[in-house]
Amino acid sequence: MATVDVFAPGEALAPTSREVVNDFSIQVATVNGSGSQSANLILLRALFQMGIPVSGKNLFPSNIAGLPTWYTIRAGKHGFVGRKKEIDFLVAMNPETAREDVINLDPGAAVLYDEPLNLKALRSDVHFYAAPFDKLVAPLAPPKFRKLVRNIIYDGVLAYLLGIELEEVRKALFKQFASKLKAAEMNWAAAQAGFSWAQENLEKADPFRLERMNENQGKIIIEGNAAAALGAVFGGVGVISWYPITPSSSLAEAAQDYLKRFRIDKQSGKATFAVIQAEDELASIGMAIGAGWAGARAMTTTAGPGISLMSEFVGLAHFAEIPVVLIDVQRMGPSTGLPTRTSQGDLLSSATLSHGDTMHPLLIPANPQECFEFAARSFDIAERLQAPIFVMLDLDLGMNYWMSEKFEYPAWEMDRGKVLSAEDIEALQGDWGRYRDVDGDGIPYRTLPGVGHPQAAYFTRGTGHNAEAGYSEREDDWTENLDRLKKKMIAARKLLPKPVVRDNEKAKVGFIAAGTSDDAVSESRDQLARGWSLETAYCRVRGFPFSDLTGEFIARYERIYVVDQNRDGQLHMLLRRQFPEFHDRLSSICYYGGMPLDARTVTDAIVEREGL
Amino acid sequence: MATVDVFAPGEALAPTSREVVNDFSIQVATVNGSGSQSANLILLRALFQMGIPVSGKNLFPSNIAGLPTWYTIRAGKHGFVGRKKEIDFLVAMNPETAREDVINLDPGAAVLYDEPLNLKALRSDVHFYAAPFDKLVAPLAPPKFRKLVRNIIYDGVLAYLLGIELEEVRKALFKQFASKLKAAEMNWAAAQAGFSWAQENLEKADPFRLERMNENQGKIIIEGNAAAALGAVFGGVGVISWYPITPSSSLAEAAQDYLKRFRIDKQSGKATFAVIQAEDELASIGMAIGAGWAGARAMTTTAGPGISLMSEFVGLAHFAEIPVVLIDVQRMGPSTGLPTRTSQGDLLSSATLSHGDTMHPLLIPANPQECFEFAARSFDIAERLQAPIFVMLDLDLGMNYWMSEKFEYPAWEMDRGKVLSAEDIEALQGDWGRYRDVDGDGIPYRTLPGVGHPQAAYFTRGTGHNAEAGYSEREDDWTENLDRLKKKMIAARKLLPKPVVRDNEKAKVGFIAAGTSDDAVSESRDQLARGWSLETAYCRVRGFPFSDLTGEFIARYERIYVVDQNRDGQLHMLLRRQFPEFHDRLSSICYYGGMPLDARTVTDAIVEREGL
Amino acid sequence: MTAAAAPRKAPKINRIGLDLEPYRGLKTTLCAGCGHNSISERIVECFFEMGIDPTQVIKLSGIGCSSKSPAYFLGMSHGFNSVHGRMPSVGTGAVLANKDLLALGVTGDGDTASIGIGQYVHLMRRNLPIVYIIEDNGCYGLTKGQFSATADLGSTLKTGIANDLPPIDTCSLAIQLGATYVARSFSGDKKQLQAVFKGAMGHRGTSVIDVISPCVTFNDHHGSTRSYQYVRDNRTDLQTIGFVPHFDEIHVENGFAPGSVREIEMHDGSKLRLEKLEEDYDPGDRLRAIERVETAAEKGQVLTGVFYVNTEKPNFIDLLNLDDTPIARLPQSRLRPESAALDEVMEELA
Amino acid sequence: MTAAAAPRKAPKINRIGLDLEPYRGLKTTLCAGCGHNSISERIVECFFEMGIDPTQVIKLSGIGCSSKSPAYFLGMSHGFNSVHGRMPSVGTGAVLANKDLLALGVTGDGDTASIGIGQYVHLMRRNLPIVYIIEDNGCYGLTKGQFSATADLGSTLKTGIANDLPPIDTCSLAIQLGATYVARSFSGDKKQLQAVFKGAMGHRGTSVIDVISPCVTFNDHHGSTRSYQYVRDNRTDLQTIGFVPHFDEIHVENGFAPGSVREIEMHDGSKLRLEKLEEDYDPGDRLRAIERVETAAEKGQVLTGVFYVNTEKPNFIDLLNLDDTPIARLPQSRLRPESAALDEVMEELA
Ligand SMILES: Cc1ncc(C[n+]2csc(CCOP(=O)(O)OP(=O)(O)O)c2C)c(N)n1
Ligand SMILES: Cc1ncc(C[n+]2csc(CCOP(=O)(O)OP(=O)(O)O)c2C)c(N)n1
Ligand code: SF4
Ligand code: SF4
Ligand SMILES: [Mg+2]
Ligand SMILES: [Mg+2]
Do D63 and B336 touch (CB under 8 A)? Predict the structure, then answer.
């Protein structure tokens, strides 16, 4: 049930006059560990430099080398660069998947392939270009480098076929191999060779073409993990304890690199941070909690299995009221699941992680800028609330390359929360209670170990306690404490980023989505408006518990579709939990195939549900 | 806002002619580790033997010796033996709490106290009896036994004051000290001494009295943990791996005792079971999963912190479809919380334990019979569904003494689920797939390791797999598998115990509750009917996901009060999740003070909400 | 890509009448040249040559490149690729449920010594009958090469960063904590690996074999102490190891110098023949074994050989005194006590 | 109930001008006679006598009777009673955040050796500056007396059931894995305990002190190897231990036979004086130490003394090369890089 107009399958193909400019997808099918990543990034950068809105998404297997990998570049002249479900231009380099890759194409697509694969015979309704990569690479590089250089050749061929400016390929290439000039030269020769060969041997027949635009002024290209890492660094993180796990490892590793660069004293060589690769996730969250308790801005990074392992400790941090940041780069679960596929499957488990009555604030960024900002702000929120805060990225956001505005320097004062100094304690003559609700917002005051005042100490515990932090099993102490914790979490709403609301006076239908569903929903709204004249409103939530503004949004529209990248509609569930009165307006659209969500999937669902 | 008629506080007290027979509460306040447990159990048993409906609840601190403990016996001639909020007859043996204990009494209550405590001065509106326990004990036992024997004396005094038949005290006492005849004799002398002294020195002034009934024919007294342990033994458990944690340790320990008694071959001395005290909860659930995978009926026992630690492994068992039983004896969380207080705080976290989309069936017993039956049945359900099954006891049910009908021998055939034998595989000529949905119920077939057929093996994993158990990262394999798992969990409803429904044609108001809320809700319904003429219906759910019958119940009543023993209304949340269309009928009554729920708390809430 | 290939000279049919095929697994998806692939090949050979019924074997693993490898051998055996670092508990449960199966655990150094060290320690204490192979590359292969807890002091990452924490020696720990067959070998030494594996297969107690198994992608460079080159340059053999299968009494694999050989009879009747290279080394002496292994570590030697064997100590199944029929195979009549038993208890509680 | 009471002869005011009161904690809620109470008393005395500022100490624990005890000493110090078995990670984080604090971990044998052995092992590797006291009663006191993983082979429960798994020796493990001050003592030996504690307080690395601390309620009976009686009957001292505080150079606590005394200078300048009772024992020899401890275990000796000291090895904070100001005290200006730094990165990514 496709919603974009297509050829009838099997129909033979004549060279087309219809042109598709700057709005299509290119997919390169290779084998991982074969070094195609460089070639793909150069392609991505070249388009970026040509001022075309673009994104690059890597679909890779959960192993190290030798298995199929697909890299997809989406050019989107209207600014929509979410995944496109259909592949328009395929570069088929992998013998293992080439057949299936070609068969899955929509008619009218184009294929550049490695000549020996002989794909042309497979169907007549797509455009084929064959290139003899082995032959081309032979004169360019000594045998041991050929595997890598070979891939750069397709960059050159594509440059010719799609109209990518060769100068931009050169710039991107030299940026990519900045530290290895020799390799750069060799690869640049390969790109040129590909281009020349194509110029002489291929005849352009497909409609896909790129041309310079002017959309990327002042923009950058970055993965969400690197953006969040930078956010943590500029947010003043002090201690990062982590355990390697896809897709979060690169976040901790990037943070470590940036910290080494910017947070080591030039004179003394000494560090204002500690990054610890812990022995597992129980240890990494334990260390972060210990550090948060002792007054450092502390965080850990992980993915689903780590969240599960951290469950007991997060309950402790919640109940003992210790600031700590957890960045969860969500991958597809349950269990070990699909470690290299994206999902929003940890929303529910994170929001109520641990046994007993708990609730934890979530921040849900949708783009690198928000990764940066939310990571930086998460420490303020954690220290203000004295609670664990989850920053919910996902694999798509974290590991793929996104265009972004440049990040704004965090000009705000850090909020270190309600911390009493020795002078404060002195002024209070020691009359303070660690868990007293002095301000009526449920948030108590704390002291840091070592503050040095004889009346500053208190005893932290996960067991029942009274307002003075004394051990207590009394019914009234317990219920008062739990009530205060609830109050505090309700107060949390105000500290979290507000939803991004796109009202629409003409609309009866609204969307609610979070995180990386944004691209697909935005593009789908465009498709619906243009293809079906369906006007829609849109509220992108960015924090849980949800803002009142979200409730007000729901109240304004008759039918709200909540888009989730998980099976059970976890965002939908959390919304219904907080806004039960609107339960019958909220319906759920779930995608859980592990690919980045695409607009067509959303549009198809709406078309069906709305009976369009 | 009390709902039972009381004296005006402070009003002086005349000996009363109003008699309260067989329906009141006795509380013994002592210090733990002082051996009062025996004295209290003897009291409980004596009442039981007198045919009076009775329960005994121990309120103890989370330490080993030296802190205040309260033992409460509830006699309930109408069969309501849930906790009574008011203490009617206090035995004050603990100097540390005596003052507060007395002050908290309602007017008209009675107090037996240790003479030196001199409590009489505290107020004039309760009945006091002072006994010189030290003086009385001196001639009865050598110094080192006096601490223990002293407590038995209050049994004797109470026997006189309340009309407990001394012969029943004797029987209970000799049962209690069955293996230690010397101790029995010494204690029997103490009981008699208490009785005689009271006879000679006390004048009965309070209204509370016990007299023989005939309600306990064929009944037993047992803790829920022992009942569940028996259930596991008769359910055919093969491997129990556990880690000590209050309040579940006694379950595993009782199971081990029963297994040693009934499941060791008399001739060979060999065991048909293995009980392993693991090194922690990650290991105990891992062992149980390994055993379930290899074909044994396997279980683990734990409490909230353990549930949190088991989170990752439970996701594996869910996703790899391995039968395993988890018994969670719930205590008060979050975090270490109140280890010796009861709650229903793990319903939500257990139902969706682990990251990603998961769902796990819960069985929620309300009494020892159900503990027995559900524990036994849980293995059938686990093996039928090939999934982790949670049996949700709580501290009140697990560790306190309950009257019960005798358990019925499980006459049903064990359901070992869809397991293919070597012959089956042969007949299929090896054409089977571990995760194929052959029967359309979402439940696949499995083989056990060692079954011996060359085509029987498959590879179990927590990563993505296809219907043949082959590793797969394909979008279609993944979504089909997740869809099947969902279908399976929906099918689970039919395997779970149906709700106990008490319809009421005259009622517009209904209750939904689960587990140990039963006593309080049942008694509250009686109070509401008699005190406020409010007729109510009642549906006690016993499994999650909920039966359709529960949905139908909700549809029949205008206003449904969902009673929860946790702060956030977890049962209420789960009901709203499954039956969103009824969200506005369902309102939530939550108690989370850690005591066993009492009727008055429920009644007070209804009276207020219904504006009675 | 290398399939777990057959040895060249192996006989076509083994003593239980099977050819090599049933012992093979799927095509490996590990990197070409990965030490783990060689280990898979040895496993295929050893089970074939010993004539063990593959349907009576279970393969257990955690998470990692190494932990994937059970898919690449013994395709007729049930396999369980569990969660990261917690395979020992899963294996324990499986063996409790069915003590008649031969349990083969294959895991990584990260899986065992980093996240998994707690379960490892307790597994050793129990002396559960299991063959526990650590494919030890000193790093986390599957997550792209970070240090694991067996990385040596000073060993470097590809980025040049040096490890500054002392390694956990899984062998000396195993000996200390109660394992009863402990060896270290090298993925590149076919002969030694075979002898050591076969010895373990005949042992009914916890066998730990730490196999140095280089990660060609992330840890095979100069500066790494787990590279093929480093192992070749720094390897010290404790013994020359021969093996005489229980079904083949006459055959002697090596011509040993008389007197210098120590023969150990395993539980299945096979004999491990250790030709001493270090004069007075006694693999029955627990304290000496620990000391020798620790000394090697201090000196930067890659010491290989059978460090410790104890065939006397009762294993966990012995301690539990389990019924002859495995628990998993017991019928309802043996699992559910008679109704008289319930009556008895009810009577007591009445 | 015993309060953590003062020593009788202690001077009234210590060198930083405090009396004993600030070193005390709440009244204990442990059983009367519990070994843990004696340890609390020693902690109070040692911190008082060494004149350590209690506001610069943090107390860390897991869950158990032992782990409760930090509430009963050093009331002026921040305390953190965390989760079962995972105190090492919490302590690590706290020390990273504020390296200037003296970290005192107090835990049980169940907390450390059963559920916590994984974190324990990794703590040892890091040589984090922390004083880690194990209150070792061979059982789980708080959950009513089950065996822990340090219970000796054959030691019995009150029910008569004997332990059949080998114990984990936390000391030999600590030495093997990298701890740099490792001792065993007895809750009933006030003098030894004081010297051993004070030595640890002056050490900047991981100090492990395994204190045999009988559980009078569940594990003090005949048949237990952790009863007061058993320890008295089977105790062997490695040394007689004296201590000279750094602020008191002249004072010599014991009259040692000349030549037989080994003096070790701790990081704070205090001196530990070990009068050798076993001739050639050298607490600097890692392998000998492991061997001696393991031998004692095999013989059923309760060996006490300072087993191993290494004041040379860099600790975890040294390795991290942290700024002089503890991370927790750094102002915003030092935590947030200048805007130029962000500009630089943005430029690279443009
Ligand atoms: C709970 C959890 N944490 C982290 C991971 C990520 N992870 C996968 S494999 C691996 C390390 C494997 O290292 P090792 O056991 O040495 O195996 P190798 O790949 O080196 O053979 C990690 C950390 C995971 N799968 N699960
Ligand atoms: C995760 C978790 N599992 C189990 C428990 C229950 N528990 C509390 S204390 C304890 C054992 C403590 O033993 P040990 O550390 O030796 O301390 P002791 O009481 O003997 O001093 C256990 C198992 C818990 N609190 N948390
Ligand atoms: S990454 Fe290393 S360990 Fe993993 S398969 Fe490749 S070579 Fe082997
Ligand atoms: S139970 Fe044992 S360990 Fe706990 S306080 Fe009592 S004596 Fe001490
Ligand atoms: Mg490894
Ligand atoms: Mg203990």
Answer: yes
| Nearest to A404, CA basis, from A227, A604, A609 | A227
Query: Separation of D209 CA from ligand 2 center, angstroms?
Result: 19
Rounded CA-CA distance C101/C327 in Å is: 12
Query: Can you give the pLDDT at residue D277?
Result: 85
* Residue C12: other Cβ atoms inside 10 A: 7
- Helices A368-385, A475-495: crossing angle, 10 deg rounding: 150
From chain A, the residues in CB contact with D121 under 8 A are 279
Which atom of ligand 3 is least distant from the CA of C137? 3
Q: The tokens 């789960």 sit on which residue? A: B574
Region of poorest pLDDT, from A33-37, A297-301, B605-609: A33-37
Using the CB atoms, write b or e for C81-110: b if 16+ within 10 Å.
bbbbbbbbbbbbbbbbbbbebbbbbbbbbb
Please state whether D183 falls in left (phi above 0), alpha (psi between -120 and 50) or beta: beta
The neighbour count for residue B360, using CB atoms within 10 Å, is 23
Q: Which of B326, B366, B336 is nearest to B565 (CA)?
A: B366
**pLDDT tens-digit readout, C167-214:** 999 999 999 999 999 999 999 999 999 999 999 999 999 999 999 999
- Are A42 and A32 in contact by the 8 Å Cβ rule? The answer is no
Check pLDDT > 60 for residue D173.
yes
CB B461 within 8 A of CB C62: no
Specify the residue with its C-alpha closest to ligand 2, atom 7: B245
CATH 3.40.50.970 fits C21-320, yes or no: yes
Q: What is the pLDDT of residue A5?
A: 39
Q: Where are the domains of chain A?
A: 20-209, 222-405, 422-495, 500-610
Q: Please, what is the average pLDDT of chain D?
A: 94
Domain boundaries, chain D: 21-320
CATH of range B222-405; options 2.60.120.10, 3.30.565.10, 3.30.950.30, 3.40.50.970 = 3.40.50.970
Helix (H, G, I), strand (E, B) or coil at D156: strand
* C-alpha gyration radius of chain D: 21
B358, B321 contact by CB (below 8 A): no
> Percent of chain D scored above 90 by pLDDT?
91
- In angstroms, rounded to a whole number, what is the distance separating the alpha carbons of residues A213 and A235? 35
Distance CA C281, CA D251 (A): 49
Shortest CA distance from D293: residue in chain C: C287
Helix axes B224-234, C339-349, angle to 10 degrees: 170
**Which pLDDT belongs to residue A34?**
81
CB atoms A460 and D81 under 8 Å? yes
Architecture of domain B20-209: 3-Layer(aba) Sandwich (3.40)
Topology of domain A500-610 in CATH is Rossmann fold (3.40.50)
- Residues with Cβ within 8 Å of residue B277, at least 6 apart in sequence: B242, B243, B244, B252, D146, D147
Q: Taking a C-beta distance cutoff of 8 angstroms, is the pair B403, B220 a contact? A: yes
pLDDT at B531 over 80: yes
Residues of C in Cβ contact (< 8 Å) with A281 = 115
- Which helix (H) or strand (E) is B260 found in, with range? helix B249-262
Integer Cα distance of B3 and B601 in angstroms = 9
CA distance linking residue A394 with residue A73, whole number of Å: 19
Which residues does residue B301 pair with via DSSP β-bridges, in sequence order? Answer: B327
Ligand 1 pocket (Cβ < 6 Å) reads A 243-245, 281, 305-306, 309, 336; C 63-66, 84, 108-111, 135, 137, 139-143, 148, 215
C289 in Cβ contact with C283 (< 8 Å): yes
Q: How many CB atoms lie within 10 A of CB D184?
A: 25
- Can you tell me whether residue C135 is helix, strand or coil? strand
Tell me: pLDDT of D280 over 50: yes
Which pTM does this prediction carry? 0.97
